[in-house]
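Structure representation:
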Amino acid sequence: MFTGIIKTTGKIVDVKSEGKGKRTKIECKDEIKLKEGDSISIDGACITIEKVDGKIFEVFLSEETLKTTKFGRILRRGYPVNLEPALKIEDRFGGNFVKANVDGIGKIKKILKNREEMRIEIEFDKNFEKYLYQKAQIAIDGISLTLFERKGNRGIFKIIPYTYKNTTISLKRKEELVNVEFDIFAKIIENLLKGGK
């Protein structure tokens, strides 16, 4: 389980094909306590750490992960990523409930930056329109954001200064792809109303 509050950022430093997957090394910007077998959210995707060497850790991205996340299209050296280790029982819970199971991929269509704020407009698959309700909690590249405004299958998000400074959101560009996870409770309720199917 995760919170959508990014603990640090990193960058991809090595990518190698292995079967139908990709073995990937990521360098953390800041020191975070990691060990082999830990789960970590990488741009909103829950991945298991296989090796740790100082600030660099290694993961394996399976064929399924490459298919269901943006990593199948953007995985390259130097690419910046948001990082959040999985919650421990003794951790203080902030943010929102995030499983880091990516529901789909969104595309940034507009970015507005000025001295006071940043807003981003993201286009989602039309099948996800039902989750775009006012003030919905949606994880974008692992960052828990609140939906400010909806326009059909697009959502507008306001970015607060802390998030701007401490995540990769400030580096985003128009037409860039993002991993998306919608509110877990909305999905649970939807499933119950369908009779658990």
Notes: The first helix runs from residue 63 to 68. The CA atoms of residues 118 and 159 lie 5 Å apart. The chain is about 15% helix and 45% strand. The domain at 104-193 is CATH 2.40.30.20 (Elongation Factor Tu (Ef-tu); domain 3).
